[in-house]
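Hi X.,

You mentioned you wanted examples for the new student's onboarding notes, showing what a folding record looks like when two proteins sit in one file. Here is a clean example. The first protein comes first, with its sequence line followed by its structure tokens.
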Amino acid sequence: LEKVMNVFGNVSNTDTNDTLQELEVVFWPRLTQENDAILMDAAIFERVDAVYRERENLGLDPQQLRLVELTHRDFVRRGALLDDEAKARVKEINARISELSTVFGQNLLKQTKSFELHVTDEADLAGLPSSMMGSARAKAESKELEGWVFGLDRGTYEGFMTFADNRELRKELNAAYRARGAQGDDQDNRDILTEVAKLRAERAQLMGYPNHAAYVLETNMAKTPEKVESFLGEVWEPGLAKAQEELAEMQQIVQEEGHDFIIEQHDWWYYAEKLRQKKYALNEDEVKPYFELGNVRDGAFYVANRLFGVTFEPLEGVPVWNEVVQPYKVLDDDGSLLGVFMLDYYARDSKRGGAWMSTYRDASNIDGENIRPIVTNNLNVAIPAEGEPTLLSYDQVETLFHEFGHGLHGLLTQVPYSRFSGTSGTPRDFIEFPSQFMEHYASQPEVLAVYARHAETGEVIPQQLVDKIIAAGTHNQGFATTEYIAASKLDMSWHTMAPSEAAAVEDATRFEDEVLAAYGKPGEIESRYRSPYFSHIFAGGYSSGYYAYLWSEILDADGFTAFKESGDIFDPELAARLKKNVY
């Protein structure tokens, strides 16, 4: 069943259709019900509990002991100790949440993919890079339209908001992006997410916790909602102060250009780029030709080889779910098979947004049957015009390295039990350490010299450009910090409510506005995610856990600092410890 559902889940994320979406609404709640039937079964739990009580006397090795502890914990946290009435209600709640989360994700996909900004006058596209215009032209042609078509996938959205001179079109695209899931139609997610929040609060109370966040965080590194709130608060005020400095500098540019408007949400990306060019003389058009997709991928492979001795060999003749998928056989430093790595980098209407790592099969090694994983990396890079190279922004480069870090975590894992395989065996606020650690390598001069080669000439990126990229590394961090923590605080606000408080929420938009206003979020900066399209927490596994990226950033910064201080970013001794103890 797990094998089948892994395939179903992965294909539904990358190549969905009406039939698959209808089946999702049936299958995921049913799978939830089957899991509940096992984990709340009194007879099965009695056997698990008997092993758990005797665990110290059974001669178990550390992983076996941990497996017993986590299995017992799974049963308890799912409701094995509840009375029959509470069990029945928790089962109802779990099935309903599964259904609602599935529909939430489907609605978001439909609204993201259905919007088109169709431009017919080339003058309206002033400022946009030629590569972006080429992709938009290709998209228009695929729809048999004249002109250019821009969608709401994150890469296209950020690019348009950053470079388009036409302020009205930026405003239109921004409004469409922010309105997803909240348009008053049959794909509106607001009632869905408020019901999910209420059900989670009720379930937490039945399980003996004050709120959903307390339930979730018990098994994370942070442990409590109070610890998370304190942690976010430490960064919130400095982030706001920095964002206000950035805003003042950008407003100065507006005045220098002879305009009299006040910067709004749809202006921030655009004027942040102008400020970057002014302060660091760094032009995206100048840099982007050095970040060709295939070269960047090979740069990530190079880092894995230098650090861990891992090699990647293209695979021929293996089944793939889409013709653009690139499969690789991954070998360890001793030539043994680590797994299969499948890369799906391009956006399409049948694919959900964002970037993620997943597995078709996890690793395990029981009784000497060494099962190696099948791991995927997914991005949403716009397809270029025919014959043109696929050029990435530097943000997309970092995203590729980030997901590659997750991929390595899944591939390098060496465990007997699939429960501990790769990302599945770690707390939510540790899981981003291996991915964010890998991001550091993208900007290292030694690594840039390998992969940052001009798409047309093959010339290695000049050192002066490398210096500019590094110097601009902290540019716009007030904005980035503020929008991220706003989303993290929003997550915590939805999930720290008691059932009575959650039941009182009638309007998701009003609740969100009140929460963010109370935190003092400036109007010029939107939360990274508004609730109706916050799929991390309402259709993914990050509820009460979106703070995890910042938490892990401390870990990955410390980890990479160790390499920098050693004088060798590929220090063999440190790399061996990193491979064994983390990846």
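Then the second protein repeats the pattern, sequence line and then tokens:
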Amino acid sequence: MAFSFLNEDNLSDKYSDSKKYTELLTAPFQEFERISANRPSDQRDPRYSDVTDGTTASITRKVGKRVVQQIPTGKVEADDDDNNWLPIVAGFIFLNKILPYANHEYDFIQKCWQIIERGAQFGGVPTYVPFLNHDGEYSPDLTLPYWADVFIPRGYKSATAAPYLFLRTWLQEDDIDSLIDQEKRMRKQARRRDERYESTWDLDGLKAIKKSCSSKKSNEQQPHERDRGTNSEGIEAVTGFQVGVGATFYTFCPTTGDDKSDKDFTIIRRKQNKDPRGKIPMPWFIYDTDGFNPLGRGIVELIGPLQNLIDDDMSMYQWNRALMLAPPIAAYGASKKKIVYAPNAVISMNRDDKIEPLDVSTTAIEKYPDLYGLQKSQLLNLTNSPDTSISAEVGNPGFGKTPQALQQQQAAISVDDNYVRKNFEAWFENWAETAINLYFAERTGKEELQLDSDTADELRRLAEKGKFDLSQLSDDNRVIIDYDTATPALKFRVDASTSKMKDDVTQGEILTQLLQTLEANPILIQLVPQDKVLSAWNRIVTSSGVENPEELTVDIKELKEQQEAAAIQQQEMASAQQQGAQEPASEEEQIAQYLQSMGVPDEQINEALQMAEAGYSADDILTAIQGVMANARG
């Protein structure tokens, strides 16, 4: 049994200490959240408008969608040579049993974009891999806890290295009733089947916390709860996760305690870590690292102060513009009651009275557009955003609209995007590996899987090498998996940069250049297989955007089958010809061949063959045929 960082004696103290420490780290997150949501600051001058610039909000919202266009691909691996077949089946399960069902709350790709967006806002993003029931199909999923509900212990430079952490959820009374009812039903079903049911929930504990409803503090509330005043009451439930194979995960309610014990919390669940790797099912996405802050570093931390400056200047500019459009009136001697400041208004005045608008024009107002462009360019410099609205005239030589300037900006953007993409794919690799191991660890019993032909063919090739028992695979590509047997730890290796969708036009141009290079080099023509050349041609056609591309693409598999059939037919014909050349022709065949060479019609040839069968000599047959031919000419 692995060392336990958490137990029932230190659970409350460790949670309290981790909570205090993490709340110090996340103290500026509400401000980062406000800037990312493009909301005005509460500390602004109440006279000024609520207008904000929104550059930072645009950057954080777009970065995920720009960096990741599709779900990455990868391969399942295992260190155990005796189970080489298992990664093949696990890869099929990942694509057909895990990814299609990982859509709890949102579609999987939408959750991926949220992860990168939150990373740009806060730096480190915790994600959770629960094992859920998806309409009868039990499989791992992906959920994104709120940043204020995850707590890490002090003393670690990275949240990913923490040996334990706490995840807080907020339950309603109906959730407790549903859990109690579910547990009772599962126990009854097990008794009917004469099976043993190992429950992880404590029914007495669930009943004890039903009335333990409390309101969230301001730093615990989510944005819609703080800004719109929605109900934030709930039953606080905290799960303590820790590393170690078989280690216990404790779920408890910290706001109540059992009257029969001296503890200030109530444990409602004890669950063993079934992951054969012994890892916590909470992989982290880290947007950027600095080596000090365990939660990493996001974009908003860098550009937040400059964004606030831009927002303040913009709100003051809008306020002064309003004064310029409707300036205050300076009245000398005239009664304010007589002043009507409106088009075509007639104001009755005495000889010495004077009325004039107050001039509020300043150089700060006149130069504001240039100042705004310079400030925004400095902000974009820190993020390498693809914003091309800034010109070099604002005073920042790093910006411009010439082809060279745009090319330099695009190169810098590609470097930053590639960095974020690599971090995302590292997170995806950890999530996928956790999901695959939990799928085999959490499921029980046997399941018959209907494999696709490609997966089945991989198993058959493995059987040819003596590394798979072919009797386990049926003729119709079915295989039985026993989840109760011990499964070795599996690994997942992501295919680099597969989360980025290739530019079709660029890919088509590159492939065309490759084919031209191939055509100009006789050595390459001999070395490159024909199917690879045809594959390049098919990709060019597909990426061209032409209508009905299937009419121009070549079915490589069908072409290979046709070529193999033609080769077999040619080989059979050659074999027949060779066999015919080796065996001497019979007398009838010799007569027929001779008469054919003389141009004798088939009808006379048949008569000649009949005469040969009747016993006539070759001279008699030839004489008869010559007579027939002479009569025909006469």
